[in-house]
């Protein structure tokens, strides 16, 4: 499959990744790549729109996807609303309904979104070349993505001075879902109304075999967007996992795997054993989203670490959900539970990755979450420093490089820092030193919750090298 270039004089179909145009995004949009693949199969000209002020005269139709609810829609769309150009748009994606609080409305919108492209009149005017029961229109499960869709975007970023490897997700991976659905009903998840996990695609339907002039695979890796792969029936997950292993290509489940299944499923040990024998790409990723799951997580960790004692293991740590400006008790409980989960992971030699719900912005000390994520999500800090040490190192680095102060130690205990504070080292006067934002956030938190001061300081000083305990799983 070769890269497509549409001359400016031709009209074509526009494909719009709204998240890319607004916030930028680390991942290509799979739906748009599949639409592009369908159009490519039918020799229809198309291009990815890279200008939020694009001239709509160039496009006969525009397929626009938005994944995140906080993404601002592009100017060419907002200006088209209420004009004849609005009819050109075919829009969809979780970003248009994920925050809907009405279960009835959410269910209706999700179902409509899931099947919108199957009933799209324009797409249904073309032949389906990928087999299955549909003679016309796109079959989203079977459609091969067009992996060159983002080439022009990547080249544009490289010309702007960025390294190509920064955009490896756009050009080094075959991408797809093997299964869809979940059984957990997490209230913050788009799959909260799902009750089962079913097979969705075959690997061969999205596995790319393009090779370069030297005969090497252009896309040597596989990543999968499955919602909860291990919660599928064994008759589904086992052969699919065997097929992934048989490719001998490194693969990764980008949304993580449900580690609780290792403890809950009678096949938990088989899952851990098979994954230990696979050519996994990067850290194994699981999720520890709820403190109430601690017992399950620890039981599963003992199984996992038995088969994978040395492999990198990362857990997503969800936080910040349903916070408001004045939810002080909820904020403290959320921070407390976040650090307790981190403590468990450190004890088992695992790393965390903080995932903040957008509600975290609403609380007055929201920056504390930012600083915890800056520390936790960078393994070189998480593995070597406590959160307090990371915060103070931010301060000492700022003093050294912005103020030219070189005669002070890079790290201090909180007690040593407090002595400096009481002696007037920090303050707003010209002869005093200002605190950097991370340190300000820590102090605001301690001042806000004086009754929890000692507990907060204990948590802020959790350190992996002091907590890791191989006896927990040996």
Q: Could you say which overall geometry the principal axes of the C-alpha atoms support?
A: globular
SSE order:
EHHEEHEHHEEEEHEHHEHEHEHHHHHHH
Strand share of the residues?
5-15%
Major sheet: order of its strands? 2-1-3-4
Residues in helices, as a percent range = 25-40%
For the termini, the CA-CA separation is 49 Å
Largest sheet: 4 strands, parallel
Q: For the CA atoms, what is the radius of gyration?
A: 25 Å
State the total count of DSSP E strands.
12
- The total count of helices amounts to 17
- Helices and strands: which structural class? alpha/beta
Low-confidence stretches: none
The average pLDDT is 95
Give a description of the structure.
With 474 residues, the chain is α/β, with parallel strands linked by helices. The chain has a domain at 1-143. Helix content is 35%, strand content 11%. The protein has 17 helices and twelve strands. It has helices at residues 18-22, 30-41, 75-78, 103-115, 151-159, 234-246, 260-264, 268-276, 294-307, 328-347, 367-376, 379-382, 387-402, 414-422, 437-448, 453-460, 464-467; strands at 12-17, 46-48, 59-65, 89-92, 173-176, 179-181, 197-199, 221-224, 251-253, 284-287, 313-319, 351-356. It has a four-stranded parallel sheet. Helix 3 links the parallel strand 3 and strand 4.
Give a short summary of the structure.
This protein is α/β, with parallel strands linked by helices. It is built from 17 helices and twelve strands. Helix 8 crosses helix 9 (294-307).
Secondary-structure topology with pairs:
Layout (H helix, E strand, L loop, with lengths): L11 E6 H5 L7 H12 L4 E3 L10 E7 L9 H4 L10 E4 L10 H13 L35 H9 L13 E4 L2 E3 L15 E3 L21 E4 L9 H13 L4 E3 L6 H5 L3 H9 L7 E4 L6 H14 L5 E7 L8 H20 L3 E6 L10 H10 L2 H4 L4 H16 L11 H9 L14 H12 L4 H8 L3 H4 L7
Parallel strand pairs: 1-2, 1-3, 3-4, 5-8, 8-9, 10-11, 11-12
Antiparallel strand pairs: 6-7
Helix pairs in contact: 8-9
